[in-house]
Write a structure and sequence with these properties.
The chain is α/β, with parallel strands linked by helices. The chain has helices at 30-36, 55-66, 81-90, 107-113, 145-153, 162-165, 188-200, 223-233, 243-246, 267-275, 319-333, 335-345, 352-362; strands spanning 19-22, 44-50, 72-77, 95-98, 120-134, 140-143, 179-183, 219-221, 237-242, 252-258, 261-263, 278-279, 290-291, 305-312, 315-316, 366-367. The protein folds into 2 domains: 19-126 and 282-290 and 306-367, D-Maltodextrin-Binding Protein, domain 2; 128-274, D-Maltodextrin-Binding Protein, domain 2 (3-Layer(aba) Sandwich), CATH 3.40.190.10. The chain is 33% helix and 22% strand. Keywords: Phosphate transport, Signal, Transport.
């Protein structure tokens, strides 16, 4: 049976949805203070949102930035990457977090939001996507991309299917029905997960990558927390979510086949995956976006990961907004900012050269 969750109304700034953090109440360690001291004296408030995978990282970033900027208030609403980008295009958000880069088909909307200029897009967060499941008595499984693709496409229906059993000879698998869970909202996590299925699935996944779940069937849940909740509430469920949301649960996780080995999700593996990828051809000089290679055979790589972006404009109509967006972005890509995210969200710090390139782009932000 197909179960579809009712998507909640999304009103930017609504109290029921916004995870607001008043930076005036935040403290920080000496590293955070020193990293943000250059932005001290900033005043104002702004709204942002998007990627729910970034939620825990955003909590750490706002706290760290607030240590040196007590007169700044930033709210971040984890409504999903697609809604975050849409609210950025409309002007409701001054910046957005997105687990996938702006699509070419949406670039005109981004430029319009930025007064005709190319938007800023820089990676700020690298994290594994866990393939998590709820199967009593089983906490680890080995699966290749073809098998995972067939599970989510609905052609593998029970946990003791030969395709699963052959890769897990030491595991006693029940005949329990498999219940796949996917995101109901437009999601960069979905985009990255389906990109892996498409690239590495050996033809078993028939559609291109997409931020919107592209096949019928399964259970739909909103946001990262919704997927994790559905996995925990069901039996025989399997889904995908940012590692930071899975590690605190009792859900089982999948090690995916890379070359001839099976690789568990890890921050280091995700970082190695970005290193094995290339910068997108034809991007503007305000954009540092990646074409992800999901078919690496080096077992140091965990290929199911997301490189999540900070999306902003190069200019804003008032200096206070420009200075806050610029200062916050600079803190995020700084060493203390990346360390704070790694501690709170179990993400991989940006490679030094990538962080330097991102900072150089963020340095361009200014008032009109």
């Amino acid at each position: 049976m197909t179960i579809t969750s009712i998507r909640r109304a999304l009103v930017p700034g609504a109290a029921a949805l916004t995870l607001a953090l008043s930076l005036a109440a935040c403290g920080g360690n000496s590293d955070s203070n020193s990293a943000s001291s250059s932005a001290s004296g900033l005043k104002g408030s702004l709204a942002a949102g998007g990627s729910s995978a970034q939620e825990k990282a955003q909590e750490a970033w706002r706290a760290g930035f607030g240590a040196g900027n007590p007169d700044v208030t930033i709210t971040y609403d984890p409504v999903g990457s697609g809604t975050g980008r849409d609210n950025f295009y409309s002007g409701a958000y001054k910046f957005a977090g997105s687990d996938s880069a702006i699509a070419d088909t949406d670039m005109s909307k981004a430029k319009q939001a930025c007064g005709g200029s190319d938007p800023i897009e820089v990676p700020v967060f690298i994290s594994p996507i866990d393939i998590a499941f709820n199967l009593p008595g089983v906490d680890k499984l080995n699966l290749d991309a073809t098998t995972v693709a067939k599970i989510f496409a609905g052609s593998i229906k029970t946990w003791n299917d030969p395709a699963i059993a052959q890769q897990n000879t030491d595991v006693k698998l029940p005949s329990t029905a498999i219940s796949p869970v996917h995101r109901s909202d437009s999601s960069g996590t979905t985009d990255n997960f389906t990109d892996w299925l498409h690239q590495a699935g050996g033809g078993a996944w028939k559609t291109e990558h997409s931020s919107d779940w592209p096949v019928q069937g399964g259970e739909a849940a909103e946001g990262t927390s919704g997927v994790v909740g559905a996995l925990q509430d069901g039996q025989g469920t399997i889904g995908y979510a940012d590692d930071s949301a899975v590690t605190s649960t009792k859900l089982g996780t999948v090690s995916v086949k890379v070359g001839s080995e099976y690789v568990a999700p890890s921050a280091d593996g995700a970082a190695a995956g970005l290193a094995a990828s290339t910068v997108k051809d034809g991007a503007a000089d305000t954009q540092l976006v990646y074409t992800i290679n999901r078919t690496a055979t080096d077992p140091k790589v965990y290929p199911v990961f997301l490189a999540s972006y900070f999306i902003a404009c190069p200019t804003y109509s008032d200096k206070a907004t420009a200075d806050i967006v610029k200062g916050f972005g600079q803190y995020i890509v700084s060493a203390p900012g990346q360390q704070a995210a790694a501690a709170n969200a179990k993400s991989a710090p940006l490679p030094t050269d990538v962080a330097a390139k991102a900072k150089a782009i963020l340095d361009k932000i200014a008032a009109k």
